[in-house]
Amino acid sequence: MKSSRAVVGTYVGRFFLVFFTLVLAILVNLLAMVYMFCKGPSKSARDLFTTTMLETGQLKFVASIFLSQEEIMEAVAENSMEAMNEEMNTDMIQITQVNSDVTQMAETTTAPITIEEISGRTFFAKMMIVQDPSKVSVGTTYPWGAYGRELGTIVEEQGAIAGVNGGLYQSAGNTGGLPMGIVVSNGEIQYNSCSGVTGLYLVGFNEDDILLIKNIGGMSNAEVETLVKQERVRDAVVFQEESSDANNHFVPLLINGEARQVDGMGSGANPRTAIGQKADGTVLLLVTDGRGVSGHLGATASDLIQIMQEYGAVNAANIDGGSSSSMYYNGNYEMTSVTFYFSNSSWKLPTTFVVKE
């Protein structure tokens, strides 16, 4: 009769054999799927897969497993966007003061905050519609520490009722403690490190509650500080415009009612967060899913532009997305991080756009 130790050893050995066989089978199937996307008959599928992978933080290398650098660059070039250098005409925004007093609030037929669901071909999304732009500001974890905080925590700390993730930040290890570029909250510059960084766009609001989308790429810290004062910026974060084989970030979607010109899909499909403003001042906050959640890849640049147009945006911008994309309202997450460990919350963040009551 075998000893109990030998029996245990046999079962452990069988377990590991089955486990490693299962892992190997999964890897083989994944590689087969990648090969199918990259070398299959559908060029559009190849391009979508390639541009999507290039936008991820850790999986950029996947695109190069079966594709040459030339093929990758071809996919990027055929699914990109034209530069958008138009100056904003703030006169196109005429803010309706729907929340100025209790009487007007009672008379209006539209709720101050509404959330609508949107189903796309490769994504599911929610649009938060905020009537009063003065209620939208940048909530932060300032003074900065090693770790940021989840979206819901920041919203509650700010005494707000709703929010979405904010601007560019150092996301290594999901610590989320330090922003990038510039952060302005309630008129105070809380962070400024823009010098020498190309492609940065300031996205936020001035003291007239008008959404600003301004190219600050290449400016020094002093120049950005001067711009903040001249433009009377009250709340702002940054996102980065950069397109290459290593990345594919984009910012402006619509300026002065004109949509950005795209080639193909404009980008890959990923979780997204975007912000826009209608002619009456109404703020549009959009968050989409992606990266396999509910079987969805995510939204492309073309998708974001189309949605913002349909909702009547005059100006709109893409901001930080991917695993950071999340939406919180009235004590609950409407959209959560696509990351498995944060599937019921958000990544740790240093900045957010919050909506106060």
Summarize the structure.
The protein is an alpha+beta fold and 357 residues long. It has helices spanning 4-39, 43-54, 69-78, 102-107, 151-157, 221-230, 301-310; strands at 113-119, 124-130, 136-140, 162-165, 181-185, 188-193, 200-206, 211-215, 233-240, 242-243, 248-249, 252-255, 258-259, 273-278, 283-288, 313-319, 327-329, 332-335, 351-355.
Explain how this protein is built:
By secondary structure, the chain is an alpha+beta fold. Helix content is 25%, strand content 27%. It has two domains: 4-78, no CATH class; 90-355, no CATH class. It contains seven helices and 19 strands. Strands 1-2-15-14-16-12-13 form a seven-stranded antiparallel sheet, covered by helices on one side. The N and C termini lie far apart (74 Å).
Layout of secondary structure:
Elements: H1 4-39, H2 43-54, H3 69-78, H4 102-107, E1 113-119, E2 124-130, E3 136-140, H5 151-157, E4 162-165, E5 181-185, E6 188-193, E7 200-206, E8 211-215, H6 221-230, E9 233-240, E10 242-243, E11 248-249, E12 252-255, E13 258-259, E14 273-278, E15 283-288, H7 301-310, E16 313-319, E17 327-329, E18 332-335, E19 351-355
Antiparallel strand pairs: 1-2, 2-15, 3-19, 4-17, 4-19, 5-6, 7-8, 7-9, 10-11, 12-13, 12-16, 14-15, 14-16, 17-18
Helix pairs in contact: 1-2, 2-3
